[in-house]
Amino acid sequence: MSSALEVGRERTLMSAKQIDRIIARLAHQILEPEDAQGGVVLIAIRRGGEQLTRRLAAKMEEISGSRPGVGFLNINLYRDDDVARAIPDSEIHEDLSGKVVVIVDDVLYTGRTVRSALDAVTDLGRPRVIRLAVLVDRGLRELPVQADYVGRAIPTSRREHIDVHLSKTYAESDSVSIHSEADEGA
Known about the structure:
- The chain has 186 residues and is an alpha/beta fold.
- The protein contains three helices and eight strands; from the N terminus they run E-H-E-H-E-E-H-E-E-E-E.
- The chain has helices at residues 16-31, 50-64, 112-124, and strands at 10-14, 40-45, 69-73, 100-108, 129-137, 149-153, 160-165, 175-180.
- The strands form two sheets. A five-stranded parallel beta sheet has the order 3-2-4-5-6, sandwiched between helices. A three-stranded antiparallel beta sheet has the order 1-8-7.
- Helix 3 links the parallel strand 4 and strand 5.
- Helix 1 (16-31) packs across helix 2 (50-64).
- The radius of gyration is 17 Å and the shape is globular.
- It starts with 9 loop residues before the first strand and ends in a 6-residue tail after the last strand.
């Protein structure tokens, strides 16, 4: 009997076409609520959410005829895990007060990154509502965080890692794969 992920192997979970369909579905879901009709601001968590946000914004513009506001958020100062990463500064040029804000990231895991993003966004203003969109929800939460818009739920173990490769626009090389950290020394 084999496990969901055999040690020493990487497995593709989503192809470029599957990702593109998921982005289209997420864009429709984000635009659907009545409060989104007045406009939405997509805030990408740097780095993982950047390309997904660009793709969502383009798809939302294609669907609705108007481009959502887009910003990029560096959450390093808000992290509680002492992980220092070289990430470009935040780029948010809109007043978020009273707006519908959707925080976007590629993978939802423990919830700590999202908690940091919530702190950062509320320091920038008081949005009317904050929602969360993710391409992959891998479970294993440490904080009570739940995404409003989920591309695909993929239950994982703590030994597994999800790799998301997205381009600014559709590319055949786009993929989501999973591998086990146990294969590093095996």
